[in-house]
Amino acid sequence: MAGTSVVVVTLKPEPYLGRCLASVAAQAAEVIVVDNGSGTPRAAQIAAEHGARVVSLSENAGFARGVNEGVRAARHEHVALLNDDAFAEPGWLPGSEAALRDPTVGAVVPKLLFAWRRGVVRLDDPVGFHGTDWRPYGRRVDAITVGPHDVTHDALPLGVKHEDGAGFWTHAASTVVFPLPDNLDEEVRVDGRPVELEATFDMVNNAGQYLHAGGWCGDIGYAARDDGSFDAPADRFGACGAALVTRRETWERVGGLAEEFFAYYEDTDWSWRLQAAGLGVRYEPSLVVRHVHAHTSQEGSQWWNFFVARNRVLCFARNAPARVVARILGNLPPLPDGVARSLTARVPQALVARRRGHADRVHSPEAVWTRWAGVNAPR
Q: What is the pTM of this model?
């Protein structure tokens, strides 16, 4: 059927799932919420409030399998993935459907902005020094609040973290950037003292993915100001799974997300297979989705470090030219606990998956690498 089925996987349905579903209710032909073993009735309740269907999994099966189960339940011509902490602005789905009329486009990605605008304050404190570190710092900051919201943890630049994990030392310039949750009229305080905002701006989360020649992938534009630099439509190497739209036919041709990844790099692996199949990723900046980011898993946590480190290697083993795979495997950095053991078991499986995929490829691993390695990547 014509239209788009939106698949939203949720493990922690509070506090963002309702806002997520409301943002696509008027755009989607149907919305499917995959309760990924949340253990509470809230996902089903929130889904019902917004007219969404529910697919329930008995345990946390991982983002990749959650998406695949949702897509299997979808009934429409196009399929969209949307994180449960992401909010689509009007026009996201109709604009994506229009871009997919080009048969060479396999997936469409929007400009993904962080959910909250950023505020900037300049602290006019004298430059000091932190401990035995020779570099100059501005001041120690223990708390930044916007109304009732404590945003200290998300302030940039982070400077030097305190030993107890709370607060930070600013850099010498003493300029601090932090999120402004919803209400821009609320008072901003630094260590209890009211301060005036010097500026506010939107911050880019993702403008498509790049493939780095050094052996990893990342978000184009991550943490950059949305100052017009990312306003041109373009072809990209990869699509971020937080918000993408594709055709059901394309999904079936390329295959779903690699469930053995559980979470992280599964969207990169899928994008790589898309490129090998002769289809592209189109970045359309006029389409906007806002993303809280790292709601389900804490970036930098032990869990996050494990899957990112392991899946990076598996992704390259499944898709990159043999010479690149050999270089990566021969130069592995120190790995988080358990990663080496997991790779020993899973790399052979990844190489088998790689061989199975060769028959369906339009472009060889070498051709995809030559086209995309280093394009839009930071130096």
A: 0.91
